[in-house]
């Protein structure tokens, strides 16, 4: 409770009204603009001019008396109402409503008046639509009667009389609806249709009823138990009641507050949450009314004004006492009373302040939502955390401040756990906003702060931040990362800022153990990878040696795994110079050149072959049985020798002549087209017949059939060499023939085959050869037949084209140049179009014109 | 924000109307003081705003009930299962207040405070799966014999139908509309309100179909008149 919503300011002092006459009392009040009218119990009407003065933030009122007028009765003035459009004041005295001039209080000459009124009220939502007319509703002296009048400048006119089920004692009007306090209940009565609606019972004998129109189609009523009940013209309640004291005398409305008066206090309730907001002690009050937003309260002797404090101030007071919900409710309601532009600025600020209040109480969910909706400048939040804003940041906290905290240290009072919670919140908050428009303009501040938080908390997202698009400020971040020994991250930062040299230097230091950072256990591989994709050749060269020393096989990747679209190309000779010290790397690099890049340079191919050869020989000398490495290297050597056409064959051949690398020798002979030598080695020295067959296959790969046949015949001849009558070779010959029937010219084979061989022995070969021969014959016949058919089709076309005569006359135009033919030669297209021969020739040369013939 | 439909809680003082509503809206039980006059909450239910009025049970505020009930789409008549008089009062005193409610208003009868009865443990066992929250296991000795049984509530429901001259076939079945709850433990509180809200939606739709017509007429009529004369002719 105890919000300060209103201030009580005296308006008219007792001396100004009655001087020292003790028995004179204020009976009724009216206020219209600056005009304040007071009616007294001795039949006087006073007219004051009310001036509002603001000095040093305090509002005071000065009332200057204009005049006072005696109405000529011995009765009290019951009611005063101004009709400013008519310049009339309606005065109820002695059951008669008189119209007097608002300025001089003189009765109007026509003497128009309404007689027989107990009390009256004006319709603030008139139905007539005539601006120079007011609708007056009276409770008549006639029992159970209400009358409606139209009051003009100088005349009055009764428009309606309705009777009520009980005697009415108070009335309020809105449009066609009367809200009436009857003897035992409140009702709503539509005076136009006569339909009435009960609201609720109320005993007017015990307590004075209150009927107050508070807005369009809504009334405020005094209910049982001191309730202020809201009711609409439909007879329903749309707001929860407010709880006044039992002896409430009057009620007034000053949005969003309902003000009530009792014997001792003025109470202020909010219509928004029905809570009691303020209590002002005020004794002997007996009138409380609002006039166009001005709330006036009076005792018998004096008149006071309840000045509402600016809503903004009230909201600030609520925030100061951490009543966030109330403040926000009030702020939302203030939208009605404050210009839109101003409201939005104010409301945003309030949301932000409310956010900080929740924030300080570690209610981060609420805080976040408020910061978001209040569009908080993130730096306000960051600035609460010591050292997080970059030193270069130009940020200054908004003034007046959004909160009362100097920084987090003050807020947490050294509570480390709290501190952690605050930091975790900021981390998640910044991470969320950094990619939104909230971050616009402060991306450096946000990302730098986030980096600092991550680094400090040893958070894994630090690396993600640095490898993705970020705006971390270099100097600030670098210092911070160094301080927290995040050297790997620092390297990433350097790299992001284009300082690859610095990054590498730092990482190499980590690998060498000069500085400690265990972020990555595979940092060496990371560096290799980094260099592989590094486009700075100088930098690659600088660290090449270091990388190779660490691991020949991995290190060489900086040359071999470079992206294909790499713009910097390394001169292979330079690379090889460098790699000479690292044989394993060299082999890998040559493999890369020869096998991957397929560079057709004799030098590399020979070099690689030599290296393989040396390795094979070396392995052969140290290991006895076929170890995996040996086999692997030998396979590589074979396939290189077989597949490459660029190495110096003789050079290699020289190198292996003295060794027992028969297979290799055979391959080399094969390369030299000395197939007989090769086959000789395979058959006689290696006695490897399947290898010999393979040899025939791969040697003739990508060659034509006769070439292949020649090779197979050669092999057959080697097998059937009359010098040796090795049975094994004969068997090999038979197998060769039977398994590769298609690779032989059967006629020639039959001449070679010894007569002693049985048909049985060669039957698979013979069958195959036979089938092959028949197949060839038939295929040829088919080809012939098809060709004949095709020829016939063309002949048919030709005849067709020649069939119809073409008449060329001087009326026919060339389709290309649109001019007539003047010589007998012309070109006719298959679609019938005719053109000059020269036009056809031109068209052929200039394909742009082809569309003519297509039409 | 104008609510689309209204639900009103009626019942004698001290049966736990405010606690029921508080348990549903704020998800907790809290000692409340006697309600003065009335209070209301807004509940978003699908696309609709439903206002829930908590009325004062005290005799003093009895007269306000009719107004609160005016146009209501649902009335929740609440009694205390340990207090037979509170059920009797519903018929004697509160039923007449609902005369102002919407013609197709639905009625629910709710016996609150079942946690205080000796049957509660049994209820829990049968409803084990549906219970989101562990009950406050109070001392057995404090449990009392339940005074009002569900059958009594069903009987009252049928009386209400008779009073309203409604056919049993046209309204939800009595067994469906009689609830036993505990605001203290939360037992069946959500179930109660959500059942009611689901039933209220068709009523809202119907009210919206015919209701606004009147309102539009009035405002049109007024504003039309205004513009005609407001102009300085």
Low-pLDDT segments of chain B: 137-141, 212-233
Largest sheet of chain A: 4 strands, antiparallel
Oligomer designation: heterodimer
Please report the two chains with the greatest interface, counting residues with C-beta closer than 8 angstroms to the partner's C-beta: A-B, 28 and 26 residues
Indicate the proportion of strand residues of chain B. Answer: 15-25%
Mind telling me the CATH superfamily name of the largest domain in chain A?
YVTN repeat-like/Quinoprotein amine dehydrogenase
- Helical element count of chain A? 31
* Helicity range of chain A: 40-55%
Count of DSSP-assigned helices of chain B: 7
Amount of helix of chain B: 25-40%
* Domain unit count of chain A: 7
pLDDT averaged over residues of chain B: 81
CATH class of the largest domain in chain A: Mainly Beta
Strand order of the largest sheet of chain B: 2-3-1-4-5-6
Describe the structure.
The complex is a heterodimer of chains A (855) and B (233). Chain A is an alpha+beta fold. Chain A contains 31 helices and 30 strands. Chain B is an alpha/beta fold and 233 residues long. Chain B has a single domain (5-230), classed as Rossmann fold, CATH 3.40.50. The longest helix of chain B is centred in the last third of the chain and has 42 residues, at 189-230. The relative contact order of chain B is 0.17. The model of chain B is unreliable at 137-141 and 212-233 (pLDDT under 50). The A-B interface holds A 127-131, 175, 185, 198-202, 223-225, 227, 229, 231, 234-241, 243, 274 and B 2-3, 6, 36-40, 53, 58, 60-61, 63-64, 66-68, 70-71, 100, 222, 225-226, 228-230. Chain A: This is Transforming growth factor beta receptor associated protein 1.
